[in-house]
Amino acid sequence: MSITLQGIEKSFGNLQALTPIDLTIKGGDFVCLLGPSGCGKTTLLRIIGGLEESDQGRISFSERKIFDHDERINLQPQKRNIGMVFQDFALWPHMTVFENVAYGLRARGRKAEVEDKVMEALNNVQLGSFHARYPHQLSGGQQQRVAIARAIANDPEIILMDEPLSALDATLRDEMRILLQSLVKKLGMTAIYVTHDQHEAMTMADQIVVMNQGRIMQTGSPEEVYREPENETVARFVGKGAILEGMHARHNGIDYLRLNHRVRIPVPQEKATEFSDGTMLTVVIRPEQITLSQTPSECMMAGTVNTASFLGERYEISFTVEGTDELMFAYAKERLKPGETVYFHLDTDRVHIIEKDGSDYVETA
Question: Domain ABC transporter: where (predicted)?
Fold first, then answer.
């Protein structure tokens, strides 16, 4: 089921939590609302779920209008055919796992289906044999699975999740992430998932909606928001990398980002040739776009190693460009020592240029 938002906005007193927002989500997509705390992502989720009312605008689920401020349409949450999962598991402690999952079915008058639907939902989250246990007899990950089973037992077409994994440890988060991804696809639901964790968003989403200060900063696939951020806010929030600001210069037909009077970072010619000397540029450089060496060679620049972090199959190296205070990141096959001199080469065809006002530089015909 697709979701269409038009002109959605929300204020709490003098605080505007959401500026007018337009967003279209394709049916069956797993969409992550990503952003820092207080950016409006949970408010937007609650408006979609009917737990908050938008001050303006319209919301449609496919062709079905579920909210329209002007027409005074506002369907109650239980009439929107959605499932909800929250950070707080919100399980009844005096009820068994079975009864917790059955609660919503009974409330909606689907008593004849309770046995089959509850056991189907529990089996989908691999807890079929735990139906007679109580929440205090379960681990945190198992309790969250019960909450998910309760959300899907009513056969919702849309599932809304507000940071459901943040209370779990790292190993459980990885297990639950895989379970949620596979379950959403298996059941054909449209999922909206709120998180401030860029790793969760990058690994789970078909589409990421990056938010900040009540606004949508960029919408796109994980690859798009990582490789082609539309502004510095997205570039800094999504993925590791250096964001260098400097002056455009051209020497012997080569375009550079000039950091100071003697340090110049080459940038793709086709992305920069329309700019004259002195134009201020911002360049986003990701770690995989840098090749490191411990021996100097032509066209390489020097830097000083700050830290080396072991990531399993490789090391993440942070280093300062010689002659500047600019910190950059790259990957290496072996550990480098802090204070060691390192030489680096940029894959200039892959670096990304964004304007100071936030929009991409676009070549003119």
Answer: 3-238
Q: pTM score > 0.70 for this model?
A: yes
Which among 62, 46, 61, 49 has a CA at the least distance from the CA of 10?
46
Domain count, the chain: 2
Cβ atoms 30, 81 nearer than 8 A: no
The C-alpha atoms of residue 193 and residue 84 are separated, in whole angstroms, by 10
Q: What is the DSSP string of 239-263?
A: S--EEEEEEEEEETTEEEEESSSS-
Cβ-in-10-Å burial (0-12, 13-18, 19+) of 112 comes to exposed
Are the CB atoms for 214 and 16 separated by under 8 Å?
Answer: yes
Q: Kind and range of the H or E element at 149?
A: helix 140-152
Give the whole-angstrom CA distance, residue 20 versus residue 2: 20
Provide, rounded to the nearest whole percent, the portion of the chain with pLDDT above 70.
94
Domain carrying residue 303: 240-354
The closest alpha carbon to 320, from 312, 330, 311, 310, belongs to 330
Judge if 272 and 192 occupy the same domain.
Answer: no
Strand 290-293 and strand 280-285: pairing? Answer: unpaired
Alpha helices in 228-310 (DSSP H): 232-237, 269-272
Q: Kind of pairing, strands 30-34 and 207-212?
A: parallel
pLDDT of residue 346: 87
- For the chain, first and last CA: distance in Å? 40
Tokens standing for 153? 């037992």
pLDDT at 21: 96
pLDDT in the model for residue 274: 64
Which CATH number does the domain housing residue 74 bear? Answer: 3.40.50.300
The tokens for 9 are 């906005």
Residues of the chain under the 50 pLDDT cut:
357-365
The answer to whether 199 and 188 have CB atoms below 8 angstroms apart is no
Our CA dihedral for 227, 275, 256, 322, rounded to 10 degrees, sits at -80
Would you state the structure tokens that stand for residue 13, as one six-digit string? Answer: 């007193």
Radius of gyration of the chain (CA): 25
What pLDDT shows up at residue 271?
A: 65
